[in-house]
Write a structure and sequence with these properties.
- By secondary structure, the protein is mostly beta strands.
- It has a domain of 81 residues: Jelly Rolls (Sandwich).
- Helix content is 3%, strand content 39%.
- The chain is built from 1 helix and 9 strands.
- It has a 5-stranded antiparallel beta sheet. Strands 3-8-5-6 form a 4-stranded antiparallel beta sheet, with no helix packed on it.
- The protein is globular, with a radius of gyration of 15 Å.
- The N and C termini lie far apart (34 Å).
Length: 127
């Protein structure tokens, strides 16, 4: 297994999302140090684990990117806030279900069950 201290230019890097992700569960993106092998300004990747009943009540401030959220296990409701002021709720309850939101859409969520989500955002570059 390659160690974090090796050069960023390595062609292969392996690790464990539970160890390599940051305190907000993000694994890859522009928020990492540029010399980190997991730095990337094109994409962000998150491995999120949420407990039943856990919520994010504060609406996200990220508006510049697209987000793809894929449910691995559990169940979650995501409420989207559209640019026109309307909102839409989507529930994911079967492994493999996903939702894609485009720039300008913000969100909150509530875990109905313990769940694991992979989220991919692009671009990562903060505006």
């Amino acid at each position: 297994m390659q160690k974090r201290s090796e050069e960023k230019e390595a062609l292969i890097y392996s690790g464990n999302v539970l160890v390599d992700r940051d305190h907000k569960q993000w694994l890859m993106g522009c928020f990492r140090s540029p010399d980190d092998p997991l730095y990337d300004d094109a994409v962000e990747v998150k491995w999120a684990t949420y407990s039943k009943g856990e919520t994010r009540k504060q609406i996200t401030e990220i508006e510049h990117c697209s987000t793809l959220s894929i449910l691995l296990e559990g169940a979650i409701k995501i409420t989207f806030y559209l640019p026109d002021g309307s909102k839409r709720e989507t529930s994911l309850g079967k492994s493999g279900e996903f939702v894609l939101s485009r720039p300008g859409v913000r969100h909150t969520w509530e875990a109905y069950e313990d769940c694991v989500i992979i989220a991919v955002r692009w671009p990562s570059k903060r505006k």
